[in-house]
Amino acid sequence: MTKVHTLKEQQELRLEISFEETVKVQLMTGTAEVFGCELLERKEYTFTGCKVPIFTWHGCTITITGECTNYIGEGVEMFKYLNTHTALENIRKKARENTNLNGPRVLITGPPSCGKNSLSRILLNYAIRMGNSPLFVDLDPNQNEIGVPGTINVMPMNKPIYPNEGYSLASPLSYFFGSINCSDNLDYYKILCQKLAQSIDERVELDEAARTSGIVVNTIGCIEKSGLDLLKFIIKTFGIEYVIVIGDERLSNMLSNLTLEPKKIKKEEEIKNEKEEENEIKTEKEEEKEGEKEKETKEIIEPKKVQIIQLKKSGGVVVIDEKERKTIRRILYKRYFYGITQNLKPSSMSTSWDGLGLFKIKYLEQAPEGALPFGKRSKLDPINVKRISPSSKLDFHIGAISFAKSTKKEDLLTTNIAGFIRITKVDEKRRRITYISPSSRTLPSQIIIFGQLTWYSD
Ligand SMILES: Nc1ncnc2c1ncn2[C@@H]1O[C@H](COP(=O)(O)OP(=O)(O)OP(=O)(O)O)[C@@H](O)[C@H]1O
């Protein structure tokens, strides 16, 4: 059954489509966008198992074919989201004009299901529409938008995130945490965040588009106690200058006094040399310029206050319960192995396990602080990995193919990942492993790391 919906300016048609239904959407007249990505007129978009807001700035007519819950709401928050984008765009403009300045480093936080991921998409899409190539950092191992669950990732974004396709899995830089909960090993999670942040700093140094476009960081929804400490750690590690807090004034307050240590400090010697070079008699204009330069250097050296931007949750955001999250994670694995539109067939391969290096990350139970004498930390190493022998216990496990150059613990745990396989069968008698992989080529590395991730059904 096809239904026509007419939207007035700044209204939003909100669709809630179950995993069993498929719904087709067509923009017939006017303009409309989904999470900031414009819909093309008359193009048919197919959605299944998701919540989709179709927003219009100036009014439109849309047809919906298929069964779903839907209603029209006022997209009042979109105006504030657009204002936020405009402010970020101004910072990018300044970065393009002045190589001493960088594009904005933005982090989005708030309680679970408040619209963090949706706002990340909106800000990324608006930035891309203006010709920027921001880096998108997804630090949520529970429901990672870029990679599979259990990973944290960064990806340069230079084409829109299409409404029914999500993020292309083209070239993310992935680190394998191996669990969907950061709290399973906070120390290890933090080390991976540091590695990711370091890679971003290196990229920003070399890539002009990344330098001026900045980064957008999506975080986990845990904001109490250790979650709050983790959030502060992430803000410092990634040098976040702008924190967008959705729908939680208390959190805004808790983050309000954060400062960043200066990253770029000009060495005294450098400054002295620059001054010596310019020891000629100066005109008034030159002196003025010099004053500005000194001010700039000073600004770089002084700790910078993190700015908090408080935004309201959109009226359309839907709370996702644990059962639905589980289904979404299964879909994310399926998307990895079967392609975004799930029309690819992964290769089923078999290999001898001789020559393979199989490792498992250990998630040690850490002694609660209260159980230790005051001021003492547990002596157990919280970050560990051990070599394992293949056994049928590995069936259905997700294995990360590591780029590690050695089997030293540090290399295994902190090297980025080439991709993933899912073990389908371990034949202990014949010493062979059967697995599926999105690529039919031989494994790019013999080192495979397992965590706690399994995927049972296709
Ligand atoms: N305006 C809207 N209308 C309808 N659905 C929406 C709207 N905004 C967001 N949603 C849906 O609400 C759900 C929750 O939003 P989102 O995933 O952005 O929240 P989140 O804070 O990132 O969640 P979490 O961090 O807990 O995983 C998603 O399914 C999203 O598609």
Automatic annotation (TrEMBL):
The keyword Thylakoid appears for this protein: no
UniProt-listed SUPFAM superfamilies: P-loop containing nucleoside triphosphate hydrolases
Clp1 P-loop domain sequence ranges: 110-281
Annotated localization: Nucleus
Region annotated Disordered, chain positions: 270-297
Classification via Gene3D superfamilies: Clp1, DNA binding domain (2.60.120.1030), P-loop containing nucleotide triphosphate hydrolases (3.40.50.300), Pre-mRNA cleavage complex subunit Clp1, C-terminal domain (2.40.30.330)
Pfam family, one: CLP1_N
Domain Clp1 N-terminal per the UniProt entry, residue ranges: 6-95
Assigned keywords, A-Z: ATP-binding, mRNA processing, Nucleotide-binding, Nucleus
UniProt xrefs under InterPro entries: Clp1 (IPR028606), Clp1/Grc3 (IPR045116), Clp1_C (IPR010655), Clp1_C_sf (IPR038238), Clp1_N (IPR032324), Clp1_N_sf (IPR038239), CLP1_P (IPR032319), P-loop_NTPase (IPR027417)
Record-annotated Clp1 C-terminal domain positions: 344-456
Residues the record lists as binding ATP: 12, 51
Superkingdom of this protein's organism: Eukaryota
Function noted in UniProt: Required for endonucleolytic cleavage during polyadenylation-dependent pre-mRNA 3'-end formation.
Protein family per UniProt: Belongs to the Clp1 family. Clp1 subfamily.
Protein name: Protein CLP1 homolog
Native source organism of the sequence: Anaeramoeba flamelloides
